[in-house]
Amino acid sequence: MLHSTDNAPKPQFTPSTLNPVAPLKTVTSPIEQATIGRSLVIKGEVSGSESLYIDGRIEGTISFKDHRVTVGRNGVVAANIAAREVVIMGKVTGNIECSDRVDIRSEGTLNGDIVSRRISVEDGALLRGSVQLTPADQKQDKSSRPEAPKAMAAAAGK
Fold it and tell me: Of the candidates 9, 21, 136, 155, which lies 20 to 30 Å from 71 by C-alpha distance?
C-alpha cells in the first residue's frame, strides 16, 4: 500500500512563528492629551499639566499655562481660558489669555476678549470681543526690570 502525502498534516504558521526575531511594536501617543467627552459637563476649575481636548461642556475656569486647550466641534465652554495655545472649533464664551497663539477655526465661535502673542481667525469664524497682541519680548522685559533696580539699590545700600 502506498501512502499519499496530500493527507499529511501541514504545519501551522502563526504570526509569532513567521518572524520570531521581529520586536513587538507598541502604539504610543506622541502627545499626551486629556479628553472631555461629549456627554461630560464640568462646573468649576479645570487645570492640568497636559494638553486638553474638550468635546463636552465646561463652566468655570480653565488653566493649562504650558499646554494646548482645544475646544472641539461639539465643545461648549463658558469659562476664562489661560493656556499656551488655544484652538477653537466649538463655542467659547469667556476671555482667553495665551502665551503663544489663539486659533479660531471656521466653525468656531468666541464671545470674549483675547490677550495673546499671535492669533489666527479662519474665514467663517465668529469673534465678538477685543484682541490685544503682546510682543514676544514684552513678558521678559516686565519680569526682569523690577528685579534689576532692587539689586542695584541693595548693592548701593551696603
Answer: 136
